[in-house]
Write a structure and sequence with these properties.
The protein has 231 residues and is of the alpha/beta class. 32% of the residues lie in helices and 20% in strands. The chain has helices at residues 27-30, 33-36, 39-44, 46-59, 67-78, 93-97, 156-164, 184-190, 217-230, and strands at residues 3-8, 82-87, 102-104, 107-114, 120-122, 142-146, 168-172, 194-199, 211-214. Strands 3-2-1-7-8-9 form a 6-stranded parallel sheet, with helices on both faces. The chain has a 3-stranded antiparallel sheet with strand order 5-4-6. Helix 5 packs parallel to helix 9. The structure holds adenosine-5-diphosphoribose. Residues 9-11, 14-15, 20-23, 26, 88, 106, 173-175, 177-178, 199-201, 203, 216-217 line the site of adenosine-5-diphosphoribose.
Length: 231
């Protein structure tokens, strides 16, 4: 086995204290995604959208990676072949845990995108309509560097290249409710990969996986990594 591709979702960060989206008390049970996570919402109510992402960005100062994030960083360090992590998450817990080969397909909270010059800049504090682009200095043109519903996820070419050569595809903490991420298991399987779902409960696309293991990420991910490293 030479190549492992891993897709993570909000479930891997829940035990670090970051809410998921579709669980019982998930983010979308409190906020209507149509008012916060679409280009139209931002056009209609920019301040409300800025505040939503400012609150989630502020939380990053208070949370830490959990044993599941650290187990994946260990896998990348110790596995003899390649490990690619594709995350739908916009937190920075994978990189804080030490993961290097990481693709943020839905963007990142700690990044600002300028609608004038297109530059992406690190952004740790609050963002408002008065924030200036660090690159072109235009005021009022920054938006959260987040892929909203109806927008194309980032790095899709790189993602499909990884899926084309994966020997093992593991999905962790994702409900399989959002496309194209929910299709990655089929893509990997078509290319001959063994596919595994590590999740608290059956995902919507559970039947597409060769193997499913249910439990909390901090329990089942370190166990599975140990099993892979033992060969
Ligand atoms: N351990 C493992 N899995 C867990 C845990 C846990 N401790 N807690 C929750 N889960 C599982 C839930 O059972 C659920 O299947 O994680 C999954 C989280 O699903 P969602 O909340 O739908 O999150 P995700 O799949 O990442 O959403 C995909 O939707 O709203 C958009 O852009 C947003 O990236 C997000 C995308």
């Amino acid at each position: 086995m030479n190549s492992i591709v891993i897709l993570t979702g909000a479930g891997i960060s829940v035990e670090s204290g970051i809410a998921s989206f579709r669980d019982a008390h998930g983010i979308w049970s409190k906020f209507d995604w149509r008012d916060y996570a679409t280009p139209d919402a931002f056009a209609r109510h920019p301040a409300r959208v800025y505040d939503f992402y400012n609150a989630r960005r502020r939380q990053l100062h208070e949370v830490k990676p959990n044993e599941a994030h650290y187990a994946l960083a260990r896998l990348e360090r110790e596995f003899s072949g390649s490990v690619t992590i594709i995350t739908q998450n916009v937190d920075d817990l994978h990189e804080t845990a030490g993961t290097k080969n990481l693709i943020h397909m839905h963007g990142q909270l700690r990044s600002a995108l300028c609608r004038s010059c297109g530059a992406r800049s690190p952004w740790l504090g609050d963002m408002t309509i008065d924030s200036r682009c660090p690159s072109c200095e235009s005021p009022g043109r920054l938006r959260p560097d987040i892929v909203w519903f109806g927008e194309m996820p980032y790095h899709m070419d790189k993602i499909y290249q990884a899926l084309a050569t994966a020997d093992l595809f593991i999905a962790i903490g994702t409900s399989g409710a959002v496309y194209p991420a929910a299709d990655f298991v089929e893509e990997a399987s078509l290319n001959g990969a063994h596919t595994v779902m590590l999740n608290l409960e059956p995902s919507e696309n559970a039947s597409a996986f060769h193997e499913t293991i249910h439990g909390k990420a901090t329990d089942i991910v370190p166990e599975y990594v140990e099993k892979v490293l033992r060969g």
